[in-house]
Specification:
The structure holds two protein chains of two kinds.
Chain A: H1 45-56, H2 79-85, H3 88-91, H4 103-120, E1 124-126, H5 132-149, E2 157-161, H6 167-174, E3 178-182, H7 192-198, E4 203-209, H8 221-230, E5 234-239, H9 251-254, E6 258-261, H10 263-266, E7 281-283, E8 295-300, E9 309-313, H11 329-365, E10 381-384, H12 395-403, E11 411-412, E12 421-424, H13 432-451, H14 453-457, H15 470-476
Parallel strand pairs in A: 2-3, 2-4, 4-5, 5-6
Antiparallel strand pairs in A: 1-7, 6-7, 8-9, 10-12, 11-12
Helix pairs in contact in A: 2-11, 4-11, 5-6, 11-13
Chain B: H1 8-18, H2 47-59, E1 68-69, H3 82-88, H4 91-94, H5 106-123, E2 127-128, H6 135-149, E3 156-159, H7 165-175, E4 181-183, H8 192-198, E5 203-210, H9 221-229, E6 233-238, E7 256-260, E8 276-280, E9 293-297, E10 303-307, H10 314-317, H11 330-367, E11 373-374, E12 383-387, H12 392-401, E13 404-405, E14 408-409, E15 420-424, H13 431-446
Parallel strand pairs in B: 1-13, 3-4, 3-5, 5-6, 6-7
Antiparallel strand pairs in B: 2-8, 7-8, 9-10, 11-12, 12-15, 14-15
Helix pairs in contact in B: 3-11, 5-11, 6-7, 11-13
Chain lengths: 489, 447
């Protein structure tokens, strides 16, 4: 049953929070600028707690069930991260209070930068970007500035494979660069011949997600890098799929010049229902001076007895500031906690078990579902959510039906190069029992698709809500609830 | 290995199914010369150890629980009711992702719809999106909206010097590839009259801040008319908490309202994650970036919510999208939704008024000390500028010894404002704290 809206629960005169009376002499209100009415709801604390708790119960979440949403790396979010981020010395420090009284915070940011450099094989890191897409824009602006700094004003073309996440082309446009799409070959790799054709002195760089969105490691990655570098372009790595590379290969060693990490995917910070994320950007030696300001550095070296002094510095040719203050420190400290608890051995184990889990699912599902690029995958794989002998069934129907078994559906209809795509990423934190239960459900659904397709077409059956009318939402466009007593302007 | 459930037996059974001997065999596609680097990382710590170590790191940072803060400049120390954190810690909210599957995401979707409603009502605008990264990036997105509205034919953006300097910096970073003219803020003295004279037919957007970076509050009604007469969009950067007491910018004719949502129940957290507020008029909704939730019905006739107008977004339109933004600040938007609901009609007004009252008391007391002077007599909300008899850094060091974090040193950002301090006062500053600040300032001047 739907939950009432917060405004519908409002009753004039109720309140949840009271404040003390003013303890200072009264000041005259601002002339002509005082507000007449404040149309906010009025509820008791219990009413609003019940409201939000009930709403929470309508969500599927990692903590309530398996969440194999491809490309999103829905791994377990450790509880200790939350406790540490809430320590007063972290949660209640002001971003402008000064470096000298924030040394513990800066030390964490510095060490996180160092670890990300080490894991990615980069020479410099900025923790400023707020999310993956924000990191992409940052990295592309770095590439643009690098070329312009060398007087190379004609390099405006970014090559992007057709399997790329939609943020890649959108970020390219925002950075003032021009997009050239590259096709994939039969094994899901970049088409090398086509690449050689389009590489010339107008090339700014190539944006590559590796492993790509099919979950496949680009087999000719070193050749791709060589071709791009030879014609003067830079390699941008979309680090969305970094999880299976931890301790396995460093993108910097493969020749990537710029890459963003997703702390909310690879390093366990919670996805929060869609943010806040954190998208640190790593760069190779020649690009360090272009990083967005500020970054954390040692401003006074320590010695055996004393710790170094950390400060916020602006790189020499910085592209500028990408957001207020210093990035999502609250996410940095969570990622730091996670990495420190994994240590060197644990970091590698993450990749190993993410890859093991994905391949296990791939092999167990390959007979029932068509996997168009069927080779050993990394952390995820993509299969078709359709069968020639079950013409009425689409990926969407499979996705809706899997909800009835208590699982979140895979990512569907992405990447665009697979028909009716279902993209499955189990992550390393799932047990074999969970994977087996998921396989059983998926096999049953494949069977139902042929024997009782209507069961899929009308799914989900056991969720509190049925399929939503998205056309009605877009046509009627109700985006806001006004309190009944406020006439809409 | 923390958080990995596999036993040796599991691993073996799974490898057998896959048909390889060892996990290493799954990495054949990776070039051998760079495979399995020997990483220089510290060994693992247990939960017990990390807790102790990070407790030590945490304790080295001064924070609002132990010191008295009069520092704002874009991030504010407000009271956050307990209920906010408890709702954030609901696993179902914080371990879910973007609500792509509405049947099992109604919690997140309805919360975003309520967030949109609360922000629209607070700002007086028609519609709010599901949020941006922070106030600065929301302002950059407002510029992008205006560029789209004028089909990139107008190239001039006018920014008031009263806009948070970091916001202005971010706009310039975002726009550097787009061949635009960004002006207005080169001179601190550029008030409404000067800015008005710069507006022309090439101007796509004019932005001001309310209260501005120095705390001032001005009526922009006539100014907005001039902006509109030139066919440009008028954007107002707000402190949303101030709107609990002050006229909403819709009454000045704002086309876009953006702002830093941090004052709405978000901990300072050394600068993030915060919340980018973005609200606008119905006529611009299709050009607005960011996620948007709309009301609809499910197959059983129940009211429900979905992500809507997605064709504006990057995953559909790719390079022709309104923006590259993918997620919003979901959990932070939830925090502000719970905060606004808990404060409600009376509470938010009360808090905003307390900030106003206390700031005016503090400003009067400091101004009457003699050595310190209020910069000007313009009306202000909860921040004000004091010209000081000594370098601000020295004053702040002196205050720090008395467990007071003083104001923002404006000389660091504005050449003309050397020896000027921007002080912020909130409901959390008691009269005793203010009096302690005032007497410390007096003591330093006479020392």
């Amino acid at each position: 049953m739907p939950e009432a809206l917060i405004y519908e629960l409002s009753s004039p005169g109720r309140y949840a929070v009271a404040f003390p009376e003013s303890d200072v002499p009264h000041a005259a209100p601002p002339d002509g600028l005082e507000r007449d009415d404040l149309p906010l709801p009025e509820l008791s604390e219990l009413d609003l707690v019940r409201h939000f708790v009930r709403l929470s119960q309508y969500n599927h979440s990692i903590d309530t069930g398996f969440y194999p949403l491809g490309s999103c790396t829905m791994k377990y979010n450790p509880k200790i991260n939350e406790d540490i981020a809430r320590m007063p010395g972290f949660a209640f420090a002001h971003p402008l209070q000064g470096e000298k009284i924030s040394q513990g915070i800066l030390a964490i940011m510095y060490e996180l930068q160092e670890w990300l450099k080490e894991i990615g094989g980069f020479a410099g890191i900025s923790l400023q970007p707020a999310a993956g897409a924000h990191g992409e824009l940052t990295g592309l602006l770095i590439i643009r500035n690098y070329h312009r700094d060398r007087g190379d004003h004609t390099r405006t073309k970014m090559l992007i494979p057709d399997s790329a996440h939609g943020t890649n082309p959108a970020s390219t446009t925002m950075a003032g660069l021009e997009l050239i799409e590259l096709p994939s070959d039969a094994r899901g790799n970049i088409d090398l011949e086509k690449l050689r054709e389009v590489c010339d002195d107008s090339l700014a760089g190539l944006m590559l997600t590796n492993p790509n969105t099919l979950g496949l490691f680009e087999e000719h990655v070193q050749e791709v890098v060589r071709v791009v570098h030879e014609c003067g372009g830079l390699m941008y790595g979309d680090g969305a799929n970094m999880n299976p590379l931890l301790g396995i290969v460093r993108p910097g060693d493969l020749g990537f010049d710029v890459m963003h990490f997703n702390l909310h995917k690879t390093f366990s910070t919670p996805h929060g229902g869609g943010g806040p994320g954190s998208g640190p950007v790593g760069v190779a030696q020649g690009l360090v001076d272009f990083l967005p300001a500020p970054i954390v550095d040692i401003v006074e070296p320590g010695d055996e007895g004393t710790a170094p002094t950390f400060g916020l510095v602006k790189p020499l040719k910085s592209i500028g500031r990408m957001k207020s203050f210093h990035g999502h420190f609250g996410m940095h400290v969570r990622a730091y906690t996670y990495m420190r608890m994994q240590g060197k051995a644990g970091i590698r184990a993450i990749a190993d078990h993410a890859v093991l889990n994905a391949n296990y699912l791939r092999v167990r599902l390959r007979d029932a579902y068509e996997i168009p690029f069927d080779r050993v995958c990394m952390h995820e794989f993509v299969m078709e959510g359709m069968w020639p002998d079950a013409p009425d069934i689409h990926a969407l129907d499979i996705s809706k039906r899997i909800m009835d078994f208590g699982f979140h559906p895979p990512t569907n209809y992405f990447p665009l190069i697979v028909k009716e795509a279902l993209m499955i990423e189990p992550t390393e934190t799932e047990s074999k029992e969970t994977l087996d239960a998921f396989v059983e459900a998926m096999l049953k659904i494949a069977d139902e698709a042929h024997t009782s397709p209507e069961t899929l077409r009308s799914a989900p059956h056991s969720t509190p809500f049925g399929r939503m009318d998205e056309v009605k939402a877009a046509r009627e466009l109700v985006l806001c609830c006004r309190p009944a007593y406020i006439p809409k302007a | 290995m923390a958080y990995i459930p596999h036993t040796e037996k599991d691993r073996q059974e799974m490898l057998d199914v896959i048909g390889v001997e060892r996990i290493e065999d799954l990495y054949d596609a990776i070039p051998e010369d760079v495979r399995f680097p020997d990483l220089d990382l510290p060994p693992a710590l247990s939960e017990m150890e990390i807790l102790e170590e990070l407790q030590r790191y945490a304790e080295t940072n001064v924070n609002t629980k132990h010191f008295h803060y009069f520092l704002g400049a874009g991030a504010y120390n407000h009271f956050i009711p307990s209920v906010v954190n408890h709702m954030l810690l609901r696993s179902e909210f914080h371990t879910a992702y973007t609500p792509y599957q509405p049947e099992i995401s109604q919690g997140t979707l309805q919360v975003i719809f309520e967030y949109q409603s609360l922000i629209a009502n607070l700002t007086g605008m028609d519609v709010s999106n599901a949020s941006h990264y922070d106030g600065a990036t929301a302002l950059a997105e407002a510029v992008i909206l205006a560029l789209h509205e004028h089909r990139f034919k107008r190239k001039k953006i006018i920014l008031s010097p009263g806009i948070n300097p970091q916001f202005r910096e971010v706009v310039r970073t975002y726009m550097q590839g787009l061949d635009l003219e960004i002006s207005g803020d080169e001179d601190l003295e550029n008030g409404q009259d000067n800015l008005r004279s710069m507006i022309d037919g090439d101007t796509t957007l004019v932005a001001v801040q309310y209260p501005d970076f120095f705390g001032h509050i001005y009526d922009f009604s006539n100014f907005a008319e001039a902006v509109h007469a030139a066919g440009a969009l008028f954007c107002v950067v707000v402190n949303p908490l101030a709107l609990g007491y002050l006229k909403p910018p819709s009454e000045f004719g704002a086309d876009v309202v953006v702002g830093e949502g941090q004052p709405l129940g978000i901990p300072l957290s050394f600068g993030g994650p915060y919340l980018g507020i973005f609200a606008t008029l119905d006529r611009y909704v299709r050009k607005m970036a960011g996620r948007l939730v709309g009301e609809t019905e499910d197959s059983r006739g129940q009211r429900g919510y979905v992500l809507t107008l997605t064709p504006r977004e990057q995953h559909i339109r790719r390079q022709r999208a309104t923006s590259n933004i993918c997620t919003n600040q979901g959990l932070i938007a939830l925090a502000s939704t719970v905060y606004m609901s808990a404060m409600g009609k009376q509470g938010l007004r009360q808090v905003a008024e307390l900030c106003y009252q206390k700031a005016h008391y503090a400003a009067n007391e400091i101004d009457s000390l003699g050595g310190y002077r209020l910069w000007n007599n313009d009306p202000f909300f909860n921040e004000f500028v004091i010209s000081c008899p000594h370098p601000v850094a020295e004053i702040n060091d002196f205050l720090l010894d008395r467990e007071i974090v003083g104001g923002f040193d404006l000389g660091r950002t504005y050449e003309k404002l050397e020896h000027h301090m921007l002080l912020a006062v909130t409901e959390l500053n008691s009269k005793d704290q203010i009096d302690a600040l005032v007497s410390a300032l007096k003591e330093f001047d006479h020392a």
